[in-house]
Amino acid sequence: MDEQVALIEHACAVFENPSNQAALQEASATLLAFRNSDAPIDVCQLVLQSSSSEQAKFQAAVTLRDAAVRQWAIMSRADQRALRGYVLHYVLRHTSKHSDLVQKQLTGTVAVLLKRGWVDESSEERHAFFSEIESIVAGTSDAAARRTGIEILEAVVSEFAPATASPLGLAWEQHDRCRQSLQQDNLHTFYQHAATIAGETAQAATQGQDQGVCSACLSLMAAVLTWDFRPGNGHAAYLGTRPTSDSLQVQPGPSWRGLLLGRDRCPWLHPLLAHLHNQPDSVLAQRARQLVVLLCSLTGDIFPKEQHSQQQAGSSSSMRNEHLRQMLQMVWVWVPEPQAAVHQAAANEEAFLLDACRALNAAASVHRLSGFETAAPGDGTNPGILAHLASLTQACIGAGGLEQGNEGGWATDAVDILLDAWVELLQVTSARGQGSGGPVSGRAHAAVGAVFQALLEAALRDAAAGAFEDEEEDEGKGGAGSARDEWLTRVAVLGQAAPLLALPLLSNLIAHRQQQMADSMTGKEDGSVAMEELCLVLRLAAHVLADPGEGETPLMPLSMAHASTASVFAGQADVVEATSNALLGVASMSLDPSLGPIMSPRVMEAAVWAIGRWADTYLLSEEDLSPAMGQAFGPAGNGPSVLAVLVQMAGTILGGQAGEVELHTAVCTRLLSVLVRRRHVSHRLVQLQPWHNLAGAFAQQAAALTGLSAKVQRALACCLCQAATGLPDNAQRDQYINHLLQNIAGEVSSLASRADLASIAERPDVMQRVTALLECLRGAAQGTSPDAQQPLFSVCACVMEPLLVLQKAYRQHESVVCLLLKLAGDVVEAHVSYLPAGDAHIMCHWVLHILQTYSSYNKGRRSVQTAAALRQDAVGESYRDLRALLKLLTHLTQRDLIDFGSTEEDSTAAAANGAGQAVDVAQLVFLGLDILIPLISLELLGYPKLCLLYFQLLAYMMEVYPEKVAALPSQQLQTLLHTLEVGIASSEPEAVQSALEALAALAKFDYQSKQAGKPGLQAGSGEGLLSRFLEVLMRRLLLDSGAGELTGQAADALLPLILAHPQAYQHIGEQLLAEQKNEGLRSVLTSALTKVMSANGLCYSLDRNNKKVFRDNLGAFVVDARSIVRVR
């Protein structure tokens, strides 16, 4: 064994200072062999005890931890306790003999070993373990041992927390049992223990004489407070990461009230922070401030309900407000003077400032604005907490917190955090939240207004600075546009809280910048700066005036309603109406030909976006508006005239701003889509002459509109078709749709019937026109509404045959083929829920022909080689047609169409409509899969989007139509099952889940068929087709790292597989036993295999309770068997 120690030490020495590559490889191989050896624990202990190499000790600590986890199930209880006791005693008695890295590994090992045996021990045994830690520490009388004992407790908290737990091969249920047990029985004690010791050592810590004990206590207290205290099922926590302390809400519950709240809790913390004021970057100071941030985050039931608090305290000040007051007093010591704090941060001492911002943000996230005002209301000499917070925010903004080039600096971070704090405070009282609504008042209004104005002025300076920069014009695209709108949304919360200040400011800025742009026509000044600033103000004004209408009809924000009423009551103009008119004034500029030179596409795009958002809330609103707003923009007022102006603006932009794709897209997707969203607006819309002009130009395919990009034409077609809901009867809707689309349908039919199609098809102009026509038809399908479904399907039906001709003509052009498949998918999605049987058969036969044509021209065209050639392309650009085909098949499954051929009358109707023989939709989907599978190689299934679409479709079909799967031709069935194996082996969790769901459905059908005396799923030789999946699943559960999380999902498939194929299960068990040469381990494995189908009263059925029992049994088996099977 000494030779092994020497070999490990030598390998570590070489690894640190390799003489050549061969020596490095040899050293790596030696350490890897040591880590994977069968029984390395004794050698690890010897290395820890005798080696002088820190690297060797580190390798020994890591190997000891891994080996203990692997071998835990085959160790006796006595050996388990002995090993845990050895590591515990070693780490506590040798604190000064190894590095911090080794120390961290060893404390983590203690926590892992404790957790691994936690559920098998009684509460008394667990208590004895923690008592043993205290006993050892007390026996050493060593501060370093005390620190290590605290660090072990922190490691335990980290290991038992779901988000930071180690992968121990345990089922999730076992992790959660550990979490709940520690939370219920130990966390409170840990925190109290740490707080007591921290108080005893705080004075010595300020002088550096406690050997880090106080710092370790603060870290443990912070770890406890970052615990997820949610009761019950905490599975979601495993999927994320541990939240940061400045965004976490700490909700420990009422039982923690006496420990965390009150004046006498942690009385040492405030003096400690005061002593550390000149050491802002020390570890002790950082941990103390982190603890304060977490204490600021306390919320939930730890605070008594308001009425209970008043009864208990006999005071108007609740326990919540008292706690907030104490926290604010502690935080404000860090930044007593905002300008001084900013100057200190500029001198590279920003720690106090940033932590103060985080603490304020944490407090704001859990306390109301009224709580802040009550906790520190201010008086004649003290302006109060909100004024102080406003001054701090303004100081950070003035230090460059919004300037270009400062991204990532302290000022930017500070402004960002403080803006979050203001948003958290104000959302409760704004229309965005669930609170009382309305603007703030008094000192709060002044503070909020000052911050809003400072943010706006800084943003305008930033926009002006970027006006002359020669950068690629990517503003508004992708992440840049999203980040800008996200920031404006946050700033708008302040504007909504102080509307009487914000709205006049925005109105004046819009008018002033418009005038500056007009003056630029005379050459008086350059309009570039005014243009950039106007774009910013237009978007911000829309954010302030209106909430986003995502998923529901947006209402007028309550703060806007209050502002409208208040301004009129004060005898002034309605500030909401004035700002709305300012926005619409920019729209009117686009209709003035004389202003054409100054109306840049960027300004118009911002105006279109802003007006679209505004119109969604205010224009022709059926909700109650203020009298002035109702008169200006309501249905009974001037609303129809405003609607006409907006439609005229849209038509002018689409017809007169050639080449401006982003502007055209905004018109269709941000403005017109809003106008056609609601029936009562569409009813007004279709009566307007500007709408008739736009619809007529589209119907006649006017040159100005055909020059738009194909995608814009699709969006325009969608809006025009959606507007049909505003027509009063079916006859008018039929006439409207036919007028819109008859020329497009006729052109498609005419093109397909040309004798020279083959010779002209590849001409660029023809391909461009075909693409535009297909996109228009896609837009019409996407714009389908129940009211207009019948005439729209009639148009689709008349071009189905011509589209098949075009598919053959463009079979070598992937972009056109992909568009055809997408069009088919859109048509199916739009109409599948409404069609009668005859029309459904027409559509299904059309899809069948599309699939057959696609198959005949595309089989074998894909290959692994072409996949490799396109690997550098974005996934969204590669194999678009395959994804489109998958989506088409998925849309076919959205409604159970299998009944469409169930009656003789339906079949007769289908034949009369030219559909021919009735189509079984399930068979149609399986035909599509048969076409698709040869085109999707195993390498292509590595693309997440394609993989997920495929296995979700497969899961649905196998769950809904298992009998049809069983009836598939042998080769097709074998291919489907082979792809299931690929899905089960996938690295994409969602794909694995879908594959397992598909397998579970088939296995259930297989078992139930056999129970009914039928053969089930069998190959030609009579061998069960699914039996091989027993080995596939077992191997993945037992051999793959991280497969423990799949146990619950795999159980639903494994149980029916085992019931249907008991001999195959027995054979797998025999194989596993044969691979194990150690007699003792074989005995343990035999017992584990037996318990899978016998423990806890498991019976041979697929009822719900039995499935739950089997999941528990399988989880226990996987935990025990993995440690045996993975150790050779």
SSE blueprint:
Blueprint: H1 2-16, H2 21-36, H3 41-50, H4 54-71, H5 77-93, H6 100-116, H7 123-140, H8 143-160, H9 172-185, H10 187-206, H11 213-225, H12 257-260, H13 269-275, H14 283-296, H15 306-313, H16 319-332, H17 338-346, H18 351-366, H19 369-375, H20 385-401, H21 410-427, H22 442-465, H23 478-497, H24 499-520, H25 528-545, H26 558-569, H27 575-590, H28 601-618, H29 627-633, H30 639-656, H31 661-675, H32 679-685, H33 689-699, H34 703-706, H35 710-722, H36 730-752, H37 757-760, H38 764-782, H39 789-798, H40 800-809, H41 814-831, H42 837-858, H43 864-869, H44 880-892, H45 904-912, H46 921-932, H47 944-960, H48 962-966, H49 970-984, H50 989-1011, H51 1028-1039, H52 1047-1060, H53 1062-1075, H54 1079-1092, H55 1104-1125
Provide structural commentary.
The protein has 1128 residues and is mainly alpha-helical. It has 55 helices and no strands. Helix 24 packs parallel to helix 27. The chain is flat, with a radius of gyration of 35 Å. The two termini are 20 Å apart. Mean pLDDT is 86; it is low at 233-246, 308-316, 429-436, 471-479, 862-878 and 897-916.
